[in-house]
Amino acid sequence: MHLKFTGKTAIVTGGASGIGLAISKALAGAGADAWIFDLPSEKLAEIASSSGARACFADVTNRESLEAAFAQAPDPDVVVINAGIASASRLDQTSAEIWNRTIAVNLTGAFHTLQIAADRMKPLRKGAIVMTASTNSYDGEPDLIAYNASKAGLLGLLHTAANELGPYGIRVNAVCPGLIRTRLTEPQFARPEHLSTYFSEIPLGRGGEPEEVANTVLFLASDLASYITGATLFVDGGQMCSKFGTWKSEDAVFERDHWKQKT
Ligand SMILES: NC(=O)c1ccc[n+]([C@@H]2O[C@H](COP(=O)([O-])OP(=O)(O)OC[C@H]3O[C@@H](n4cnc5c(N)ncnc54)[C@H](O)[C@@H]3O)[C@@H](O)[C@H]2O)c1
C-alpha cells in the first residue's frame, strides 16, 4: 500500500495558499483529482492549474456557496477542512466582529464542510476527512482568543464526527501544526529575535514548512491510516512535548531561523 490517490477525488478548502496549497499539490501529485475550494480571486484558476488541481469558488461561511462548489465536484473520497483565518488581539480588545468572523470561518465553516462531506460520503460507505486544527487546539497563546477557541472547537467536531461516521466507513482525523511558514505567519517569520526565542522551545529547533503538514495530511487521508480515526497528529517539531525548552545559547547557535548545536 502506498500514498497513492489515483482514481480518488480530493477536496481542500482554503487550498489556494499556504498549507492548503501544499496539500492540494501533494494530493494532485499522488494522482488525485484534486479540487481547491477557496474565496473568489482572479488568481484562483491559475494557482489551481499550476498545482495540478481544479478550482472552485467557495466561501466556507456561506452554506449555499459551499454546496454549489461540492455540486460541481464528483463524490469526494477525501475532504480536507483547512480554510482558516487568524487575527491577533488581546482579550480586552477582541471585538464581537473579530470573534464572529473567526468562529464563522474556522469553526462554523468547518461544520458546514464536514456536514456536506459526510452527506456525500455516507452512501459510498467510505471516505477520509482531515481537519487542519492546531497546537492551539490544546494550549493557550496570548492574543488569539477567538482563534484558539475556534481551533479547540474543531476537536469537538472531530471526536463527534469520528463516532458518528465510523459506522459508514468514514474516518475523521486532524493535524495539529505548530508554527508553519505561510502568509498567515509572515509577521512572526519576519522577526528573527522572536523566532530564536520561540524555536528554542522546539526540540527540532525550527518552524515547519507547509509541505511537512501536507505529508501528514496525505498519510491520514490514505489507506495507510486505515485503522486511525478520531486522532490528532502534531506536526510541531516536538513543541507540545517540550516543557522547559530545548535550546540554550551556551551550546547552540541560531542561524537562518534554525537552532543548531555548536560543534
Ligand atoms: N501557518 C501556521 O502556522 C498554522 C498553524 C496551525 C494551524 N494552521 C491552520 O492551517 C490552515 C491554513 O492556514 P495557512 O497558514 O496556510 O494560511 P493561509 O492564509 O496561507 O491560507 C488560508 C486559506 O484559507 C482561505 N480562506 C480564508 N477564509 C476562507 C473562507 N471563508 N472560505 C474559503 N476559504 C477561505 C484563504 O483564502 C487561504 O487560501 C488554517 O486553518 C490555519 O488556522 C496554520
**What is the percentage of strand-forming residues?**
15-25%
CATH class: Alpha Beta
CATH architecture: 3-Layer(aba) Sandwich
Compressed to H and E, one letter per element, the order equals EHEHEHEHEHEHHHEEE
Strand order of the largest sheet: 3-2-1-4-5-6-7
Distinct helical segment count: 8
Would you tell me the structural class of the helices and strands? alpha/beta
Q: Could you report the average pLDDT, rounded to the nearest whole number?
A: 97
Bound molecules: nicotinamide-adenine-dinucleotide
Radius of gyration: 18 Å
Q: Ends: how far apart?
A: 41 Å
The residue fraction in helices comes out at 25-40%
Uncertain segments: none
Report the biggest beta sheet as strand number plus sense, adding barrel if it closes: 7 strands, parallel
Kindly state the number of beta strands: 9
CATH fold topology? Rossmann fold
The total tally of domains equals 1
Question: Given the C-alpha coordinates, what overall shape results?
Answer: globular
